[in-house]
Amino acid sequence: MHNKGRLSILALLTAVLIIIYLFTDIGSYWDYVLPKRGIKIAAVVLTAAAIGFSTIVFQTITNNRILTPSIIGLDSLYMLIQTALIFVFGSGSQSVMNNNLNFVISVGLMVLFAALLYKFLFKRESQNIYFLLLIGLIMGTMFQSFSSFMQVIIDPNEFQIIQDRMFASFNNINTDLLGISVFIIAAVFIYFFREIKYLDVLSLGREQAINLGVDYDHVVKRLLILVAILVSVATALVGPITFLGLLVVNVSYQFFKTYRHAYLAAGSVLISIIALIGGLLIVERVFTFSTTLSVIVNFIGGVYFIYLLLKENKAW
Which pTM does this prediction carry? Predict the structure, then answer.
């Protein structure tokens, strides 16, 4: 089957799942239920688009299919920010209770951290992308350690608020945050269309890309900033979902079997939407809210990650 046909199938399946989610057991309260579910679907689509798209770009840059943007420490930084705000200012402060302010602080600090990290890396020509990953991994571990330290000594009642933010949640999404997220993600996607031509070349590796006339460091730095913005917005909007990108992007590679990122990126976004909406249906209809979507996604993604590691090990 042609890749356009495969994309059409994914788009149709996505539409079917959205319709099922919106109208299942809606009863006579559609005027109340439908807007609530519509906001949740909008949050799912935004999160799926940001995570699926950013992961395919990140894996192309690193030329590695078992890495996700979370390896540079953005998820850990998000938890550190939330923990530090509650630890220093208390759970009743505006920086915690005001969702808009909390969103701006979280996204701003995560993007600032990523920008400084990239500036430090690309300042010296001798450094490569794996040095960035190593620094990001170390920083992520340090952020996690600081968060754990504060969580141990914090008031138990306030720790419960932190615990709620450790897992992604699509319930009670603030419509103001949704509007800001739509604007930011749409702006990043529009800008990215100028850069998508580089991805097919970057997948060949640094040396080949340079030989073909690509200003490698400049292009990669721009793309990594876009990745950081997308991941930061998705994380600040719903919370961290560590393994979603790894799962959907590798499924996209298997489904399309092409080097063209126009298909791979679109496929990753659609598969990500399918995974999240399917997960929501399972959480709400099968488990009746006894677990969270991020737990299911991270469990399946973790198992798949182990499978990929074993597969790569056999290849060696």
Answer: 0.86
